[in-house]
Amino acid sequence: MYIIIFIGNGIILHIIRIDPVLHQPMYFFLAMLAFVELGVCASTIPTVLGIFLFGIHDISFGSCLLQMFSMHSFTLMESGVLLAMSVDRFVAIYSPLRYTTILTIPRITGMGATIALRSVMLMLPLLFLLKGLPFCGRNTLTHSYCLHSDLIKLPCADTRPNSILGLFVVISTFGLDSLLIVVSYMLILHTVLGIASGAGRWRALNTCVSHICAVLVYYVPMISLSLLHRFGQHLPPLLQTIMANAYLFFPPMVNPIVYSIKTKEIRNIIVRTLSRKRNEV
């Protein structure tokens, strides 16, 4: 699974870097998505591989906090990048002639920096609140990595401030981002319905298919996991573990495949490269 994720996202990053044809806003945002998905997976490697390959079931408190901070920061960034990609699709469809003049490299860089800064600044208070809590007795996590929702069940102290702050972070990132993504697609649909040609409407919508898939494979497992943590205490722990792994590993494994199949430029480059390698052999 890790091999598929790292190879798939690594290929996307490499293709975008080396091919000047792909030096466009859409592909810069796709590169951001591939990068943060690699970051999410890299954050979980120490504990996941430690458990399944070496049978190591212990982690220090400091290491667990660091993993939680890193993993959640990258997942928040992923949500922000998906929002930025929906803005990119709206601009491309609403104003195609001004697409590259609106989404310039400085603006794209600023959007990426804002996404990263927002994620880090929202996660730091959660980190320091957890660090100041007392932990008593046997501290056992239900997942193979350190989730904030898992960690706040362990302290022998009042964790309501942590829960309230955690809820604020969720609403101000995942909640707001998903709402704005829906609004952007409502505007896209309104714009597309104004296109006279049926073929033109189809072409415009077809450019959004990959991003819609990325949004669904990101938010559906996340919402399902949140509902399980909130209402599924009576359900088997194995189900929660499966959903937690799907939430983290399914999007970075599927997105490179979807974009490689649905994006003509990337697909052509991959086919051309494979054909060249076959001819050399």
TrEMBL record:
A GO CC term assigned to this protein in UniProt: plasma membrane
GO molecular function: G protein-coupled receptor activity; olfactory receptor activity
Compartments it resides in: Cell membrane; Membrane
Keyword terms, alphabetized: Cell membrane, G-protein coupled receptor, Membrane, Olfaction, Receptor, Sensory transduction, Transducer, Transmembrane, Transmembrane helix
Transmembrane feature ranges: 27-56, 68-87, 108-130, 164-188, 209-232, 238-259
Any single Pfam family the record assigns to this protein: 7tm_4
Membrane topology: Multi-pass membrane protein
Job description of the protein: Putative odorant or sperm cell receptor.
This protein's name: Olfactory receptor
Organism taxonomic ancestry: Eukaryota, Metazoa, Chordata, Craniata, Vertebrata
